[in-house]
Amino acid sequence: MIVSLRNCIIIASAVVLLGTSPSAAEMMVVANFDGGGSDAAPVTDVVDAYTGMAGDGWAGPWKKATSISSMVETVLNTNPLSAGGGNYLNSVISNTGATNARGSVGRSYKYDATTNPGGWDVTKDHQVTFKFRVEESLSTFDDGVYDAFQLFDASNVLSNTGNDCRWTISVNGVSDGQGGFVPGNWYAQDWSTGSQVNIDTGILLESGVVYDFEITVRNVEGYTKQRWDLTIGNGTTSFDSTLVSGLENGMGFRSTAATVGGYVNFSARANPNGDQRNFSINSLHVVPEPSIAALGVTLALAALGMGARRRRP
Questions:
Q1: Lower CB count within 10 Å: N or C terminus of the chain?
Q2: How far apart are CA 86 and CA 30, in angstroms?
Q3: For residue 303, what is the enclosing H or E element?
Q4: 308 in a structural domain
Q5: pTM for the whole thing?
Q6: What digits encode the pLDDT tens for the residues 107-138?
């Protein structure tokens, strides 16, 4: 059988790409809370539950971090975030006595050869997607510094953002003094210059609205560190950071480290004493960046198709 140079290139490309593309275990890491659970009755022998257990790409169970607050987690199904129904995790954070009360719940998908071989190598291109909804009326969401929702990726579960965060998405009741966004709107933090620059999404935080978040982490030619993009939609309006002038090549991470991250954090602040934040999450997925997955499949199918044609009499 004679194989053309073109077909050799197709086969070689497929082999190289598939050899460097995500493994089967890395193809998707999922949290839909199908196994239920709560702080009062944690489920510890099922991966996709609260608090859950290690497995299927997750390094361990869900964890919490609090400061001057109490935080209660419960898996519910009474008002699903998805049209098809299903469970979701509800979080209630209560200020227990002082300013700057905060809490966070999160989980790690970071690859480790020994402890989490099915996890995701955070240096590879990938996407993190999830649904988020505020359950409170927002009538007391009026302190620009101490009332906030923050969604971020870090090296651990943290009660507050810090220098080891990679991407961060926030919303404040009123101005936080740093500017760059309309109070009450979701905004992304771009650290390309080494300082925080807030990117206003134009998407307003509203009670009872389900927000779809898509964070793409990618390696961009000409940059020594990965970049990140944000897409957010509320069912009516959407925002895509790559359509913002100057952000076509992504936004910068806050952390200067190469491999920090892998813990997705869902965090909030409440002020004053007795104030609460109440939110729900679901459909947390970590997947390959679409162009890589699609190209790998295309090349593999092309190689297989060529072989099939060669075998015809």
A1: C
A2: 14
A3: helix 290-311
A4: no
A5: 0.85
A6: 999 999 999 999 999 999 999 999 999 999 99
